[in-house]
Q: What sequence folds into this?
């Protein structure tokens, strides 16, 4: 009980940080948005969001007591998360080398890189947590009866990262793009 | 109430600390909320002395017109460090420290919900503070090495941009505050979890001591406000280190954004600093009035109301920016509104004293002084919330006088009262009441001498943050009186330090309940054992010890 | 942020963590905090500092994790009964008559404020309209003037327009009048027990006089139109009508004993039944 509340509060605080970024950034992001391509980002988003489901499957498997299924689902989650990071990295590479957009270029670059970058950083943290759990389970340190509660709470962090991404995605790639096209 | 039976040698040995090194280890590795709380308070008081020293040098410089005791650059660093230190390294840690020490005791718990996290938060605060002060040695500024930050405690953009703030002192400011901010956040999370989940049997929410309620609201405010500051500082760091443009007006960045972000943190911060002091008053005042607190549920409602409204008043720090009439009137209205629950509290404290059997011990003196001084600060606050008035006096010494009445006459008086009140609990020995009373009067007189004239010099047109002023503007006498007050206060504080050190060795033995008080922390021995209570108590009302002492007429019948 | 704080209480404990055992001292939080600080300090000094910080932080985190996994490291409290909560003190039975004076002992039921407010509102309206009629300024003038608090356009109207009927102004005035009447009635019912001796004097006369004074001072801001036309004796008269009727209605209700020492649930149940049962 204490644990749950605590983690929730932690998310809450993290959430506010992120929320702040929206408030801080959206009012003045009026710089060319046509460099962003939706295609690869949608693939990334699908990966990240589906990973939220796979991690639920993993926790359910653990609750049932089948460590094998737990490992598999966890591994799938981790791979999906890695895909997201790699996808973001590729997107950034394209932006930097082809479109010449860096954090210094303009206010949009500033906002884009810090917001998406902070999110990517959180994804990395979440990945490290998941990988840590995975390694522990490989060595047989995860006992379903004892630990499923803890693992469940740890995966909340992953869900949180996911939800944040939904907001970031909406903000950067949907709201951020539309007015730009309307203007130009 | 209960005496602790003899402990097994292993535990007793570690608690008393055989050798010096073992004692150091026992403190640094401790996850005990009481040790951490005491360390918070101790370190906060050390920083208090440092910040007070900085203030004294400033007052010395301002004692006469056209003084050239220190250079303008030094002066800028001094007021920046003074403000930053007092807010982040004194106010927050001392109050969080008291919360740390008292909350588990007051709700009948053995420790905080996350003891290790608690230690983590404390050490982050310490290292953050040290990082900030390391700038005096390591930072590399415009005038060479060893330069402290000099951008003011609210660090307005674009003064903080690379163009205007060369070198890295400002980065030290960002990082030091950021790190200690992480510490505050973890501690706030811990408070929330503790208060919600660790209460002893019978300790319903509406039976919690008011200090615990205040700490709950404070934890909420910390969780809302500090992340915003951290985010703003991260943006500033990007600006300075990576060349981003958040606050750079040349490329459509907004210097105003920093003000919004900072004050969205900054105003809840004011309430973070004052609410625990409200809690001290609400604990101390009933005990020395020998009456139950007046309007307990209303106090809680007012606290929660303050917590919520305080999130919507930040722009009253920014009237001079020119926000436009709509925003100006909104924030004026919300600021007036927040004075209502604060006024309710003042009346409730007066109602508590009314008809009580008052005992003016030192803690009671301090909290009575608190009510009076805070009232003055609150009233000048309402004056400043009026836009035309604020336009005239914003950034003058009137403002300096105002917030020192709130934070010094309010928070610091509350803290001093709390030190005198809970010192016996933490150490087992009483502080000398005679010296305490002298301390109070020295502090009170020195405080009034220093800060009352600031209102006048502000109205006469003296801006804040100037290193000197010219002759024949009518400012000399008021500044001189302000400076006279400093040694008086310093004498009071030195006397307190002497009192603490002397009483630690020679003070009267306190016993578990020296004040005949009613909250749970007095139900265990002084100092409490590492596990706080030999057996967790069961609570029947908001004054559990009253019920235990007066079973024929308990509070439980009158809830 | 680290997530290793999420140590659970473990299954051995009942509801409350640390009932029988308390956490053992550990240096790892210190090491972790040290590492975090150095990571940040490296930004302004030297990347090597960050590297040291990262290593220290990692070591600290691992050490911390081993502290809480697989089982939290704790030490026992060396007392036999530490896990059993102390029973609550035995309290005497609640006395027939409370030992403490409860002020006020009895109050009017809150719904009496509702009725009192409405009745007072009617009385007030009668007097106000009477003023409009007797001075020959028209039936609608007081109503329109009241609407001026809500509707800014009233301020631009001339005397003729103010004497005529306007549907929207009428609705605004009615709504405002009912809302204010009920509000004031409720305040009355809360405040009257504090002046228990002569409800008609306090509520019916003193309160309206005070209120008229407040209105006299503030009306300029709240409703400038009303201020131009207002007749203060009649204003006071209508306030007195409200106060007297409202206080009279409220005091006709039976007093209810204030429920001291009962839980909120108890009290809510009692208020459902006919008032006056103690």
A:
């Amino acid at each position: 009980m204490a644990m749950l509340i605590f983690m929730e509060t932690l998310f809450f605080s993290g959430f506010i940080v992120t929320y702040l970024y929206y408030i801080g950034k959206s009012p003045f992001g009026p710089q060319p948005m046509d460099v962003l391509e939706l295609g690869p980002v949608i693939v990334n988003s699908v990966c990240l969001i589906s990973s939220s489901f796979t991690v639920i499957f993993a926790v359910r498997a653990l609750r049932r007591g089948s460590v094998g299924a737990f490992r598999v689902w966890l591994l799938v989650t981790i791979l999906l998360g890695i895909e997201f990071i790699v996808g973001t990295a590729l997107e950034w590479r394209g932006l930097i080398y082809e479109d010449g957009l860096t954090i210094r270029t303009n206010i949009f670059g500033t906002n884009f890189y810090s917001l998406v970058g902070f999110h990517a950083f959180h994804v990395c943290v979440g990945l490290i947590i998941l990988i840590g759990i995975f390694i522990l389970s490989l060595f047989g340190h995860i006992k379903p009866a004892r630990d499923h509660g803890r693992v469940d709470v740890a995966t909340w962090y992953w869900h949180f990262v996911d939800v944040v991404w939904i907001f970031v995605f909406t903000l950067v790639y949907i709201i951020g793009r539309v007015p730009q096209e309307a203007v130009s | 109430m209960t005496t602790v039976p003899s402990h097994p040698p292993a535990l007793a040995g570690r608690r008393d600390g055989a050798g010096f090194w073992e004692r150091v280890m026992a403190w640094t590795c401790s996850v005990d909320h009481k040790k951490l709380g005491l360390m918070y308070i101790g370190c906060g008081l050390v920083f208090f002395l440092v910040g007070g020293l900085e203030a004294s040098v400033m007052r010395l410089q301002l004692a006469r017109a056209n003084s050239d005791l220190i250079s303008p650059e030094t002066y800028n660093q001094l007021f920046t460090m003074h403000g930053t230190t007092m807010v982040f390294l004194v106010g927050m840690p001392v109050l969080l420290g008291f919360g740390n020490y008292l909350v588990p005791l007051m709700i009948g718990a053995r420790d905080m919900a996350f003891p290790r996290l608690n230690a983590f938060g404390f050490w982050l605060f310490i290292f953050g503070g040290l990082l900030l002060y390391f700038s005096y040695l390591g930072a590399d500024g415009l005038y060479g090495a060893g330069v402290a930050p000099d951008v003011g405690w609210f660090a307005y953009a674009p003064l903080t941009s690379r163009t205007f703030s060369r070198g890295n002192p400002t980065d030290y400011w960002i990082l030091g505050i950021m790190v200690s901010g992480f510490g505050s956040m973890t501690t706030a999370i811990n408070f929330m979890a503790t208060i919600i989940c660790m209460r002893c049997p019978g300790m319903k929410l509406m039976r919690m001591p008011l200090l615990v309620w205040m700490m709950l609201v404070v934890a909420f405010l910390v969780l809302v406000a500090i992340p915003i500051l951290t985010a703003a500082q991260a943006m500033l760091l990007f600006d300075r280190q990576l060349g981003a443009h958040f606050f750079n007006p040349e490329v459509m960045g907004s210097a105003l954004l920093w003000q919004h972000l900072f004050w969205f943190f900054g105003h809840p911060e004011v309430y973070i600093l004052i609410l625990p002091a409200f809690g001290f008053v609400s604990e101390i005042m009933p005990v020395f009035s020998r009456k139950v607190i007046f309007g307990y549920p209303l106090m809680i409602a007012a606290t929660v109301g303050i917590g919520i409204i305080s999130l919507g008043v930040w722009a009253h720090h920014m009237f001079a920016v020119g926000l436009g009439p709509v925003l100006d009137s909104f924030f004026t209205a919300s600021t007036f509104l927040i004075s209502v629950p604060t006024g309710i509290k003042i009346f409730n404290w007066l109602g508590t004293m009314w008809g009580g059997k008052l005992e003016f011990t030192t803690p009671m003196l301090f909290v009575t002084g608190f009510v009076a001084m805070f009232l003055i600060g609150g009233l000048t606050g309402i004056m400043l919330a009026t836009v035309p008035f604020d336009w005239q006096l914003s950034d003058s010494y009137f403002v300096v006088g105002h917030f020192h009445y709130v934070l010094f006459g309010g928070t610091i008086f509350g803290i001093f009262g709390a030190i005198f009140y809970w010192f016996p609990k933490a150490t087992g020995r009483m502080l000398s009441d005679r010296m305490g009373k002298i301390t109070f009067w020295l502090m009170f007189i020195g405080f009034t001498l220093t800060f009352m004239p600031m209102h006048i010099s502000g109205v006469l047109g003296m801006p804040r943050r100037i290193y000197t002023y010219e002759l024949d503007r009518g400012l000399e006498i008021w500044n001189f009186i302000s400076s006279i007050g400093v040694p008086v206060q310093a004498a009071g504080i030195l006397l307190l330090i002497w009192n603490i050190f002397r009483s630690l060795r020679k003070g009267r033995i306190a016993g578990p309940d020296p004040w005949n008080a009613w909250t749970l922390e007095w139900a265990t021995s002084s100092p409490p054992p590492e596990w706080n209570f030999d057996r967790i108590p069961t609570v029947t009302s908001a004054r559990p010890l009253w019920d235990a002492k007066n079973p024929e007429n308990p509070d439980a019948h009158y809830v | 942020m680290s997530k290793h704080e999420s140590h659970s209480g473990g299954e051995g404990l009942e509801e409350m963590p640390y009932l029988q055992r308390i956490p053992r001292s550990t240096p790892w939080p210190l090491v972790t905090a040290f590492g975090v600080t150095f990571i940040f300090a490296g930004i302004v000094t030297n990347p090597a500092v960050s590297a040291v910080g990262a290593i220290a932080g990692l070591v600290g985190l691992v050490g911390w994790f081993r502290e809480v996994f697989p089982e939290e490291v704790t030490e026992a409290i060396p007392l036999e009964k530490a896990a059993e909560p102390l029973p609550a003190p035995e309290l005497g039975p609640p006395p027939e008559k409370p030992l403490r004076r409860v002020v006020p002992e009895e109050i009017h039921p809150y719904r009496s404020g509702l009725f009192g407010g409405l009745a007072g509102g009617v009385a007030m309206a009668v007097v106000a309209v009477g003023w409009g009629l007797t001075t020959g300024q028209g039936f609608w003038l007081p109503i329109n003037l009241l609407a001026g608090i809500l509707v800014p356009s009233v301020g631009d109207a001339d005397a003729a327009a103010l004497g005529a009927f306007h549907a929207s102004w009428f609705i605004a005035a009615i709504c405002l009048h009912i809302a204010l009447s009920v509000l004031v009635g409720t305040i009355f019912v809360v405040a009257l027990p504090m002046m228990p001796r002569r409800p008609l004097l306090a509520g019916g006369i003193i309160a309206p006089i005070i209120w008229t004074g407040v209105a006299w001072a503030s009306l300029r801001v709240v409703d400038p139109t009303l201020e131009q036309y207002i007749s203060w004796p009649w204003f006071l008269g209508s306030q007195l009508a409200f106060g007297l009727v409202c206080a009279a209605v409220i005091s006709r209700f039976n007093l209810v004993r204030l429920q001291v020492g009962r839980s909120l649930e108890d009290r809510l149940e009692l208020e459902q039944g006919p008032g006056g049962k103690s």
